[in-house]
């Protein structure tokens, strides 16, 4: 039985989405009704489609009795989280062939590492790379040779982009296959401490590099609960993984067994069999609410206040930040994983992991239990953890003896009675803040504004000693129309040093923060953005800004008439519109929707 607030928000979303959802489902039915995809192709199309296949595969593909599975992969050597994916396609092909079906590597999608681009120009392409990934996924699937698909991807914009692209083929079933976290190295807290010491000039860049290299040291996803690991948690909650695939490490025999299990499962759930599970039926309004509740219960990435709006829209479902806020008010915080605590995702997994969270949310009535999933039998199957027993993959409940109460809590005794995210309203616009990572003492601040138009301006002011005081950093012209809405996570060590010195500091921006950003209160995704004439552009040096995260208030203490009468001079933004590929993204900056609608140039 779902609790009232979850039911209320779900019904509100269904109501709001009636028309768009019906149109989406009609489109998917139109694609399905044409029958097995390759059966619609001409002889020439089909021959081209299997020209490079092995002879026995060609014979199988000439017929339409067995499934042909698309593999779409975000493999590259740049993302530690994606490097292990290199070997997965052949594992999948062999497993599918053993099922009497075929699999083809349908296409690759690009994947950017936000850790490599953080604070650098490349970060200005990051958000829009999600839409490029969505389009690349559609290009891979456009060959219409397929009855189902497996998507290999993990990181920030990649899973959202692949899911948006997959939803354009909602008549097909999909499974998402990750590679798992890297082993724990230098703890996230120790890494952050070295960064702060570097910001204060106390250690050399050599020492900093040693610390960063000890934190990020091998294949696998980085171990903070940022956007990538939030993706994995939400894929479990939406039933788009093989249960428990999220946080098993890349090494060892479980990971390949889970990948083979995904290959076997996808061949069973196509329209050619009798257990058809199209993506359009899995991703419905209740599934989206299950994802939001799980995000809020785990203090997941604020980027999902943008990505899941775009994903929902791709399924004809309309959600907004009030939905997040109302669900957050009703959802208990069940985990403390860095930046919301000191444990990392490996510790979380050992303490019970995704299975624990989903069990607590289902038992507490916070998640819809009666929904279709791509594997198992509804979300309840995702309350089990995979183990190898006598070389066989089986699932069992997490061991209660391992449930470390500093990392995971029951819904009856949570860390907080409300979730990790808050909607902020006021005379500057609408923004969001992740409260799960901000200490109570720092959630309320009234202080003068200091205006910045570029991240380095803040570093320079810090180094010049100009910031040793209470202030609210207003970092603007960082929205999608301005420069592609980069994450401003490089500001964290500087602001954290000032907070540790005892100053009351906060950040207000129309840009983003990383899912790994934490202890400094940051009102982000300000809509409308400065470059679109938002009120954030009219804030002047010294204006008093009031932020009350718990009350959901953010305002500049200037009367409306004065604020409206202010003349705003738009800074010259042309310098960040060319170089390092940015000229290729102008059309996306020009046509992006606002953050609260998913900040997309493709999905509406
Ligand atoms: O949203 C996220 O989770 C971040 O974009 C993350 O993917 C990025 O890599 C951070 O920069 C990591 O944190 P550090 O920069 O602190 O290593
Ligand atoms: S989690 Fe972030 S930093 Fe780590 S590989 Fe993925 S994108 Fe890069």
Automatic annotation (TrEMBL):
Residues 407-599 form the Dihydroxy-acid/6-phosphogluconate dehydratase C-terminal domain. Its EC number is 4.2.1.12. GO terms for molecular function: phosphogluconate dehydratase activity. This is Phosphogluconate dehydratase. It comes from Candidatus Litorirhabdus singularis. NCBIfam families: edd (TIGR01196). Pathway: Carbohydrate metabolism; Entner-Doudoroff pathway. The keyword Iron-sulfur applies. The gene is edd. SUPFAM superfamilies: IlvD/EDD N-terminal domain-like, LeuD/IlvD-like. Its cofactor is [4Fe-4S] cluster. Keywords: 4Fe-4S, Carbohydrate metabolism, Gluconate utilization, Iron, Iron-sulfur, Lyase, Metal-binding. Residues 68-377 form the Dihydroxy-acid/6-phosphogluconate dehydratase N-terminal domain. Catalyzes the dehydration of 6-phospho-D-gluconate to 2-dehydro-3-deoxy-6-phospho-D-gluconate.
């Amino acid at each position: 039985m779902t609790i009232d607030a979850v039911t209320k928000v779900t019904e509100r979303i269904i109501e709001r989405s009636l028309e768009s959802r019906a149109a989406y489902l009609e489109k998917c039915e139109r694609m399905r009704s044409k029958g097995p995809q390759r059966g619609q192709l001409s002889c020439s199309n089909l021959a081209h489609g299997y020209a490079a296949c092995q002879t026995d595969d060609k014979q199988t593909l000439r017929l339409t009795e067995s499934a042909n599975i698309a593999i779409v992969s975000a493999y590259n050597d740049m993302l530690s989280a994606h490097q292990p994916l290199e070997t997965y396609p052949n594992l999948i092909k062999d497993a599918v062939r053993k099922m009497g079906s075929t699999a083809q590597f349908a296409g690759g999608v690009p994947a950017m590492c936000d850790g490599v681009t953080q604070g650098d120009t490349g970060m200005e392409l990051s958000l829009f790379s999600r839409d490029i990934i969505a389009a690349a996924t559609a290009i891979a699937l456009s060959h219409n040779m397929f009855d189902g698909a497996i998507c290999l991807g993990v990181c920030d914009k990649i899973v959202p982009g692949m899911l948006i692209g997959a939803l354009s083929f909602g008549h097909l079933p999909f499974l998402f296959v990750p590679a798992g976290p890297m082993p724990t190295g230098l703890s996230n807290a120790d890494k952050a401490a070295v960064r702060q010491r570097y910001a204060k000039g106390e250690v050399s860049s050599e020492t900093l590099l040693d610390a960063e290299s000890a934190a990020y040291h091998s294949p696998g996803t980085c171990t903070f609960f940022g956007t990538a690991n939030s993706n994995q948690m939400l894929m479990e909650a939406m039933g788009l993984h093989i249960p428990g695939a999220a946080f098993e490490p890349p090494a060892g025999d479980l990971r390949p067994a889970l990948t083979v299990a995904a290959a076997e499962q996808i061949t069973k759930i196509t329209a050619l069999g009798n257990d058809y599970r199209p993506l359009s039926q899995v991703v419905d309004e209740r599934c989206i609410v299950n994802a939001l509740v799980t995000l809020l219960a785990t203090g997941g990435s604020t980027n999902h206040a943008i990505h899941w709006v775009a994903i929902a829209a791709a399924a004809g479902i309309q959600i907004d930040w009030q939905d997040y806020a109302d669900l957050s008010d009703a959802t208990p915080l069940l985990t403390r994983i860095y930046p919301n605590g000191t444990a990392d995702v490996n510790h979380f997994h050992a303490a019970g992991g995704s299975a624990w969270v989903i069990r607590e949310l289902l038992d507490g009535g916070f998640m819809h239990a009666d929904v279709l999933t791509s594997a198992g039998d509804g979300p309840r199957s995702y309350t089990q953890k995979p183990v190898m027993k006598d070389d066989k993959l089986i699932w069992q409940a997490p061991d209660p003896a391992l449930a470390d109460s500093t990392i995971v809590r029951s819904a009856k005794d949570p860390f907080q009675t409300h979730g990790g995210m808050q909607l902020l309203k006021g005379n500057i616009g609408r923004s969001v803040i992740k409260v799960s990572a901000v200490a109570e003492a720092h959630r309320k601040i009234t202080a003068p504004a200091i205006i910045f138009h570029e991240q380095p301006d803040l570093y320079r002011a810090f180094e010049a000693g100009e910031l040793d005081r209470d202030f609210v950093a207003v970092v603007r012209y960082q929205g999608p129309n301005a420069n592609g809405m980069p994450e401003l996570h490089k500001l964290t060590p500087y602001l954290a040093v000032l907070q540790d010195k005892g100053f009351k500091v906060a950040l207000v921006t129309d840009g983003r923060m990383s899912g790994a950003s934490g202890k400094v209160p940051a009102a982000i995704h300000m809509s409308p953005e400065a470059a679109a004439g938002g009120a954030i552009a009219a804030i002047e040096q010294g204006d008093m800004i009031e932020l009350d995260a718990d009350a959901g208030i953010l305002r500049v203490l200037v009367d409306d008439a004065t604020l409206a009468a202010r003349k705003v001079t738009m800074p010259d933004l042309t310098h960040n519109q060319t170089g390092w590929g940015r000229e290729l993204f102008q059309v996306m900056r020009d046509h992006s929707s606002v953050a609260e609608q998913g900040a997309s140039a493709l999905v509406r």
